[in-house]
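Session log. Operator J.P. requested a structure for one protein chain; no other inputs attached. Running the standard single-chain path with C-alpha cell output.
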Amino acid sequence: MATQLDLGALVDALRDDLGDDLADDLGDDLGDDVVLVDPDRMAGYRWDRAQDPAAGVPLAVVRARSTADVQAAVRFAAEHGLAVVTRGAGTGLSGGSSALDGCLVVSTERMRAIEVDPATRTCVVEPGLLNAEVKAAAAEHGLWYPPDPSSFEICSIGGNVATNAGGLCCVKYGVTTDYVLGVTVVLADGTAVELGGPRLKDVAGLSLTKLFVGSEGTLGIITRIVLRLLPAQRRPATLVATFPALEAATSAVLGITRVLRPSMLELMDRVSINAVEDLTRMGLDRSAEALLVVQSDEPTDSARAELAQVAEICAEHGAAEVLATEDPDEGEAFVVARRMTIPAVERKGTLLLEDVGVPVPRLGALVTGIQQIAARRGVEIAVVAHAGDGNTHPLIVVDPTDDEQATRAQQAYGEVMELAIGLGGTITGEHGVGRLKRPWLADYLGPEAMALNRRIKAALDPAGILNPGAGV
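Structure written below.
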C-alpha cells in the first residue's frame, strides 16, 4: 500500500511500474481529460486550505464525473495497492484532503447534478455542488437548506458531509448530519451502496447513513446525497452587543442559551474585531473585548420580544452597547463581518486553524484559557465562535519565516486542544480530524473508543487504502 515511507523512491517506482497501467487501465476507461498525471496539472490537488506542509505528490488525479468513474478509480487503486484521497472544493481546514505521495486523488468537483423535490422537501445532490448552490436551488422552490459554514460560497456539499460541517445557524437548526437522509457510497472494493433515502423516518437496519457522515473519506467515497429541506427561513432581526470583558460576553451567552434559542449566536474577540475592522472599515468598536451577533427568525412580534430579552441579558452581564435592527441590510452587514473573520485574520500571517468545542457552560473557561496560552507562548490567537453551541475557532497567527515563532505556535496549537479535552470538550466540532489533529485523537477518544473506531475502519477498508493518515 502507498504510504509516506521512502517518499521520493516510492513515487518514482510507482510512476515507472504503473505508467502503462495508468494509460491503459484507467485512462482508457475514463479518458485523458479525467485522469491527470502531469505534475503541473496535479499541483492544485495536493493541498486543502489547511496547507499541510507534509502534503505529497499524487501518482494521478481522477476528476470523476459519476459514481461509475469513482468505482473505476477505487477498483484500480485496490488492485495496485494505492492510497485513495478524496477531495471536493479543497476548502478543508484540517488537512483531510491533502495528498499523499504516490496516492490516487479522486476529485468530485465535476459531479454537480441536483434535483429538488418540493413534495417531499428533499433534494438529491452530487458532492461537487457548492453549499451556496444547494441553497439557491432550494430557494427557487421556496425551500431552505440550513447548514451554513462561513465558507458556504466556496465549500462543496460533499466536503460538508465528509466533515459533518456546521455553521452560523446550527445553534437552532443543527448541523449537516441532521439534513442527510441518504447517501450513495463507493466502498474500498469499488462496490457502490445506496443507504437511506427520501424518508423522514426509517429505522430498518443499522444507521449506516450516519456512519459515513463525518467519516472524512476513510470509510468510503460519497457520490450522491439525499438532503432534507425546510420551508424558507423568515427574514431575521439582528442584535449586536459589545462587551468590555470577554468573560462578560461568555456569561451573557450562557444566560441567553438557558432561556432562549436564537437562530444565530456568534462571538468575536478583540483580535477578530480589529482584523475585520482593518479590512471593512465598517465602524466596529476597536476597544471592545468581545462582540456578540445574535439573530431571531421568529415571526415579527416574537422576534422583537426574543431580542428584547437578549438585550436585557446582555445588559445584566455588563454590555457596553446593544444595537437591535430589523433592517435586513444592516443585519446582514454584521453577519458578513462575522463570516469574514478568518480571511481578515489571515492577512496578519499564516494561520493554524482550530475548531475546538466545549459544553456551553465551559465556554468562558475555554476562551480565557486560550488567551492565557497566547500570552504564555507569545503568539497572537484570534477567537471567533459559534458561541451558542460552544464551538470556537482559535486562529493562531504564524510568521512562516520565523522558525522559533512557528515552534511556539505549534506548542500553542496542541495546548489549545489539550485545554478543550480537559474541559470536557472536543478537538474538532465541525472541521474534522484530518491529518493535522490526528496526534490528539487517541487522547480525546480514549483507548476503548479508539479501538472501536479502528475495528469499524478495518471492517470497511481492510487494506487501509481510503485516506490513510486521516481521522482514525
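Operator note: The mean pLDDT is 93.
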